[in-house]
Amino acid sequence: MKLVGLVGSVRKNSYNAMLLNFLAKRYEDQFEVAVADISALPFFNQDEENAPPAAVQDFKKNILDADGLLIATPEYNWSVPGILKNALDWLSRGERVAVGKPVLIVGASTGMMGTLRAQVHLRQILSSPGLDCRVLPPGGNEILVTFAASKFDESGQLIDEPTVSFIDTVIQKFVRFV
Ligand code: FNR
Questions:
Q1: What is the pTM (predicted TM-score) of this model?
Q2: How far is the CA of 9 from the centre of ligand 1 (A)?
Q3: Which atom of ligand 1 is nearest to the CA of 16?
Q4: What domains can be seen in the chain, in order of their start residue?
Q5: What is the pLDDT of residues 125-138, one digit of tens each?
């Protein structure tokens, strides 16, 4: 199974990048994750939606070929970061390559809400007609890594056992879902 990973942060020591890397490594016997560099995408321009720049065309082809998406989002001001919204806006226009794709949303924040509000927004965005993704339903499946600074060690490993064990359960459900 081939998944494309999107991270909504370009920060060097991003907890969300750590979370995505953790998923890619821990479940490598179940799926392969290719992380897309959404920081290389230009700002969305509707004038170019039907003939987008090369970086966007490559990104859209990767999404089209994928069996599903893993999206690791920070929460910025109670929503998704602009970099992630920009990538999703490109996917939603011209050839709608994300339609029907299974998606797992995960997120890490330094606060006590663990990206909950951003994830609610992201579900709504992914339900729009241009994207129309199949997001793993939220009941019991919300991967919200709260107080992230205490859950990862210096080398970026997720070290909180209850969190790891919960993620194991959700990943098994996502693999069946895909
Ligand atoms: C934040 N942060 C934050 N946290 C949160 O729980 N709710 C929020 O609304 C926000 N808003 C917010 C806005 C902006 C502009 C920044 C830079 C940060 C804190 C955020 O959770 C923290 O910086 C994470 O570490 C960001 O994720 P990465 O970069 O570690 O993946």
A1: 0.98
A2: 9
A3: 31
A4: 2-177 (3.40.50.360)
A5: 999 999 999 999 99
